[in-house]
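Example S7 (structure tokens).
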């Protein structure tokens, strides 16, 4: 990378180039097979994911968003029900709850992990609460021990949103293997990503798995014998074949992401204006998201853009402040999430990133050196 190089927040090309021949071979295999939907690649990928994640069933879908909808539908959650989740997430988490006709109830996050604060969940439980959706945000596993204990005590279902956490572990267990369902996304920016949209549901429960498979195929277990209004949500053969090339490398790529995170820590942790994300066990650093203190986030982001360094604000608004929910959630107070939305800035991270080059450029940019 030269001094003139623009540094993106994510670069997928090294991964694509490194496995070019394998992707081509997978592509040709599917083209020659003539089978594009629910064929051998999808079946094999489901099996390989189930083995990797340590679950009995993995069900390939169109997207992570569909995984969330279908999980809630399969659990029988609908109008009149409440589902507790975090306001500091991508909209799809709350959208799925609203989509099935239930009400999202937003509980504030922890200051340092950006994840749902287990200490605040019980106060939000009512007679209508049916489930909790913890989101392993930015690849950091939630405090599942406490969340699972609360769910068990109150008879609630857990649906893990693992869109950003493929390969992350809590206490040695894979995210997506602890709740009734795990919901994964293979959107191109994710740690394990397709060449387009894709998603997956995981579960250990045979009946729930059958229900989810029924819902993904227009509500039919047997072709043309539709029993529910479902979805058209299958993981295409081409995506499955490409994902099968990538899956064996996910641990190595996640380890490389952690090394990038360590590089940021080594170089930036003494800066008093930045709060860096902790490198806890099992964190897979989908994002490296810092807090910029003293109201200077937007200024820093603009200056980094001037220096050719790509960054993103995930997320500029907590979900309860979106126009859609402003009226219905006027009484919701999540001060930690509201503050985070003003301070967060995600820095470049991808497995093969030349961390010394990027961090040097970052440190020498006016934005960071003047903080
Ligand atoms: C936390 C979270 N949940 C759900 C989703 C939805 O996944 P998808 O884009 O595959 O529908 C995403 C991805 O963007 C996400 O980041």
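Recovered sequence:
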């Amino acid at each position: 990378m030269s001094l003139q190089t623009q540094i993106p927040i994510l670069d997928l090309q090294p991964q694509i180039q490194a496995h070019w021949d394998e992707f081509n071979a997978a592509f040709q295999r599917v083209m020659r097979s003539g089978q594009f939907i629910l064929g051998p690649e999808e079946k094999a990928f489901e099996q390989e994911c189930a083995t990797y994640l340590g679950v009995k069933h993995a069900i390939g879908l169109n997207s992570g968003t569909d995984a969330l909808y279908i999980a809630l539908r399969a659990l029988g959650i609908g109008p009149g029900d409440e589902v507790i989740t975090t306001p500091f997430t991508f909209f799809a988490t709350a959208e799925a709850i609203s989509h099935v006709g239930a009400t999202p109830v937003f509980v504030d996050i922890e200051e340092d992990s950006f994840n749902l604060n287990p200490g605040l969940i019980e106060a939000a439980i009512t007679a209508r609460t049916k489930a909790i959706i913890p989101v392993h945000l930015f690849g950091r596993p939630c405090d599942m021990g406490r969340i699972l204990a609360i769910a068990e005590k109150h008879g609630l279902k857990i649906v893990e949103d693992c869109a950003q956490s493929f390969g992350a572990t809590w206490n040695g267990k894979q995210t997506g293997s602890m709740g009734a369902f795990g919901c994964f996304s293979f959107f191109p920016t994710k740690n394990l990503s397709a060449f387009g949209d894709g998603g997956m549901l995981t579960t250990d429960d045979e009946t729930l798995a059958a229900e989810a498979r029924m819902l993904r195929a227009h509500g039919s277990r047997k072709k043309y014998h539709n029993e529910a209004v479902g979805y058209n949500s299958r993981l295409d053969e081409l995506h499955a074949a490409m994902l099968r090339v990538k899956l064996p490398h996910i641990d190595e790529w996640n380890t490389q992401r952690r090394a990038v995170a360590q590089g940021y820590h080594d170089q930036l942790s003494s800066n008093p204006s930045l709060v860096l994300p902790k490198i806890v066990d099992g964190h897979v650093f989908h994002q490296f998201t810092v807090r910029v203190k003293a109201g200077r986030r937007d200024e820093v982001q603009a200056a980094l853009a001037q220096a050719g360094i790509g960054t993103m604000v995930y997320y500029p608004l907590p979900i309860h402040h979106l126009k859609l929910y402003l009226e219905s959630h006027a009484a919701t107070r999540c001060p930690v999430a509201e503050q985070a939305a003003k301070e967060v800035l995600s820095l470049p991270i991808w497995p093969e990133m030349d961390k010394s080059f990027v961090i040097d450029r970052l440190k020498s940019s006016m934005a960071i050196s003047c903080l």
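Notes on this example. The chain has a mean pLDDT of 96.
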